[in-house]
Amino acid sequence: MNKPLIALMLGLALATAAVAAPPATSTTALEALLACKAGSDFTEAQVEQAFHAAGLSRDPGSVFEPKGKPVALFGGTVASADVSISKPYKSLHVYLQGVDHQRLARSWGVTTVNDAAETEAPSYLKKIDATHTLHVGAGDDYEGYSAAVTCLIEG
Fold it and tell me: What's this model's pTM, rounded to 2 decimal places?
């Protein structure tokens, strides 16, 4: 058999498969924003770009939600997400399904009980620095999520 012909056919098959493959979604940027690192910052456009890269879309006047297939994040799937920027606060929220919020909080070292949270189970927060606070909230079965993660930046 003609080796150059086989190589050409194999190359065409691989190129066709690469073109036909759907684009992969990535939660890397979203995970970095949710880490709420000291000194970090974000704009609404940056958060929206991270949501889109993860496979989340917004219906007009609504929150971001997975479209087509589930978006895996932190051992569960994203139910919805949102960003709010209004001086002096910036917040990024992700609501998850299939995640134990207490396990998630412990794994990140978020262990201070948030007494201000109006949740049935305890919610937790961790003051990262003077302006950054990471919240891991208990879920709300009625709203359809098992955990909420929020990065709040003040100032």
Answer: 0.81
Please tell me the distance from the alpha carbon of residue 81 to that of residue 131, in angstroms, as a whole number.
22
What is the C-alpha to C-alpha distance for residues 90 and 87, in angstroms, rounded to an integer? Answer: 7
Would residue 106 count as lying in a domain? Answer: yes
Task: Let me know if residue 14 belongs to a domain.
Answer: no
Query: CB-based burial of residue 49 (10 Å sphere; 0-12 exposed, 13-18 middle, 19+ buried)?
Result: middle
φ, ψ for residue 22, nearest 5 deg: -70, 150
Backbone φ and ψ for 56, nearest 5 degrees, come out as -105, 140
| Closest among 107, 144, 143, 138 to 123, alpha carbons compared | 138
Q: Exposure of 97 by Cβ count < 10 A (0-12 exposed, 13-18 middle, 19+ buried)?
A: middle
Sign of CA dihedral 94, 99, 100, 104: negative
- 125-138 pLDDT, tens digit per residue, is 999 999 999 999 99
**Residue 18, in any domain of the structure:** no
126 assigned to some structural domain: yes
**Distance, CA of 91 to chain centre:** 13
Number of structural domains, the chain? 1
- Angle (nearest 5°) at CA 145 between 61 and 148: 80
